[in-house]
Amino acid sequence: MKRKFEQKDHKDLIPIIRSSSSPCTIRFQAGTIISSQHKRKLRCLEVCPVNDHLFITSALDGIVNLWQLQGKGSSASLLSTVDCLSPKQRRWPEDMAWHPNADSIFAAYTADGADSHISILNLNASRERKVTFLDQKPHRKGIINSITFMPWADTCFLTGGSDHAVVLWQEVDSSWKHKTVHAHMHSSAVTGVAGLYQKKTILSVGADKRIIAFDLSTGRFEFRNQIESKCMSVLPNPSDLNLYMVQSGEPGKQLSLFDMRLRQTELHAFGWKQETSESQYALINQAWSPDGLYLSSGSADPVIHIFDIR
Prior knowledge:
This protein is mainly beta. It has a single domain, classed as YVTN repeat-like/Quinoprotein amine dehydrogenase (Methylamine Dehydrogenase, Chain H), CATH 2.130.10. The protein has strands spanning 42-47, 54-59, 63-70, 75-83, 95-98, 104-108, 118-122, 131-133, 144-149, 156-161, 166-172, 175-182, 190-195, 201-206, 210-215, 220-226, 231-236, 243-248, 255-259, 266-270, 287-288, 294-298, 304-308. The strands form 6 sheets. It has a 4-stranded antiparallel beta sheet with strand order 1-2-3-4, with no helix packed on it. Strands 5-6-7-8 form a 4-stranded antiparallel beta sheet, with no helix packed on it. Strand 7 and strand 8 form a beta hairpin. The chain is globular, with a radius of gyration of 19 Å.
């Protein structure tokens, strides 16, 4: 399961955005509904980075389930179930991320009540030692909204919290060290964090409607972009290293595309009409297809929306 780090190939997709007069038909199998085996509402679903037949789910019951897809997704079998509630407040994981080697799963919690911020679920350990909690507690208060591993050779991950802070965690001599990247560039909760593939630049978005690009090598921010609606997440394109997507709550243009080189210029936006009266911010995490041509997101309707950037 160990993954050797490989430099990503760049494909220039930005010129083909809106280049086609009609969308392509996406052929897919009929959906299969499977019981989640959770007792409360689902919170996260994350696919394994080295084996797309494995995925995890977590819910408000604090349980993390490991699943394996059968066939081409016609069914799924439950492989294991682990209690990952935090030790003090018994809180559920707010967000989860696979370690790049796929041998463990990291979860983020809350900074309130002196609770643990990060847990590590070791998939190879015995049940008694399966979940450990890091001692470091760099976030000052509130929920830790996002945890994401960086696409770089050195193993590290970012967390973004309701305390407006972005924190970098690095693995040093089999232990984890942290440093606060910035804590005052956002005026509200940080809702999404990501790292660029081609250089050590961090993107963060927040409820303050800001997109911040911060260069780790120089210790300075590259640019700040203010959009018209609250941001909820950010996701770089897997093929075009200059292209990234921001998910916001603006009706009709929930998914916005940006070019790192143009900074404050929005390339295009995709969206839909919300059919229910629920909040525009009740959206499911967005995703790119592996070739970078399609993007998807869900809503509270509930409908999965798939867009062709061409």
